[in-house]
What we know:
Elements: E1 6-12, H1 16-27, E2 32-35, H2 44-47, H3 54-58, H4 62-86, E3 97-101, H5 104-109, E4 119-123, H6 124-130, E5 140-144, H7 152-165, E6 169-171, E7 176-181, E8 186-190, E9 193-202, H8 209-214, E10 222-232, E11 241-244, E12 247-251, E13 256-260, E14 264-265, H9 274-287, E15 295-306, E16 313-316, E17 323-327, H10 333-349, H11 355-361
Parallel strand pairs: 1-2, 1-9, 2-6, 3-11, 9-17
Antiparallel strand pairs: 3-5, 4-5, 7-8, 8-9, 10-13, 10-14, 10-15, 11-12, 12-13, 16-17
Helix pairs in contact: 1-7, 1-10, 4-7, 4-10
The site of glycine has 8 residues, from loops.
Amino acid sequence: MLKTNHTEVAVIGGGIIGSAIAYYLAKDKRKVALFEERKIGSRSTSAAAGMLGAHSEYKEFQHVYSFARSSQLLYKELYHELKEQTGMDFEMKKGGLLQLAFTSEEREERNSLMQLPAVEWLTREEAKRKVPHLTDQIIGASFLKEDVHVTPAIASNSFSKGALLLGAEIYEFTKVFSVVNEYSHYKVNITQGSFTADQVVIASGVWSNYFFQQTGLMNAIIPVKGECIAVLNDQLPLVHSIFHDQHYIVPRNNNELIVGATKRWDDWNEEPTLEGIEMVIKKAKEMLPSIQGMRWLRSWAGLRPQTFDGFPFIGEHPEQKGLYFAAGHQRNGILLAPGTGKMIANLISGNPVNSEWVEAFKIDRLPSAVSIGRG
Ligand code: FAD
Ligand code: GLY
């Protein structure tokens, strides 16, 4: 049962986005309750590789890059803050990411990226000094030193435990069925009954569609299914992630390599396919041929929440005051979670928020030529 029949802010969805929002709201001393229909961080979040790819994914999108980079930087302080508060270690390592280039065109596409201090061009020989088993087919690699990685399910649970320790209420296995605007507050109907909230944040990943429809919005989020495998790496001292053409190999602390990932549009099934696994193995062997000798551990899939332009919806409902959305983070919800949590907490608390970000992420924005079809 619920501890109270009223809360200041109800957050719907306990993936990394809802968990980070609950944490930042609790830090702001808001009375917050988080509702998750399964376990915290168990859906798209636990499927993620955990790369904080501000440079590999966003460099060419001005406002979105500044948001992504600030979120990436927040992780540095959060790592120590959450470890101290919760005792949980979400395994942020310093290896960075090698974005391989197989052709001179790929090298040229990265000219503006290469101007940044956190980025360095490596010749093939230099790249192979860092990862000796890399394929000989590359001409070089961009070394994205700050695109490090974390373990997403632990990060999500660190946020929710941090929120709990700051006074938030966390309800797992509690589905929210509806949110009804009763003018002075919202009535929220859940598995165990109902309660009221002054503000509601929808952070339900691909399942946010359901709430768009209930609140009169035409927006849609499409799942882009990603399939991954894990293999046991007891051969290579690999500390850098390896990335090419949106495929990657990411070393985890416990001698695992996370190998991903496919992109299947509008597929709602959360199980991997043989065809998908074949594809990620093929791409991994192109980058690191010796991976074929490694031992199989497991496979899985998750649904990336994709908006019409590939960028998230973060902000207030255009007509219903006090109703917020934070969904549609596509390939980068792990990277963008701290920035999203902080932005929603600031909007709710009336603190200043970068106006370019408010415009870039508002739910009723118009399509922009630069971003359509991204993903
Ligand atoms: P979710 O994690 O799906 O959370 C939404 C939650 O809402 C779920 O737990 C669900 O159970 C709950 N929910 C839904 N409806 C209700 C309801 N009615 N009531 C209560 N609860 C409800 N991002 C990165 O930044 N770096 C990466 O390296 C990376 N790699 C990825 C690899 C793969 C294969 C995939 C699939 C994704 C990857 N991502 C990565 C993207 C990232 O995983 C997502 O953007 C992120 O997890 C989205 O978080 P979320 O909280 O919005 O969604
Ligand atoms: N960001 C990696 C993926 O979505 O597969």
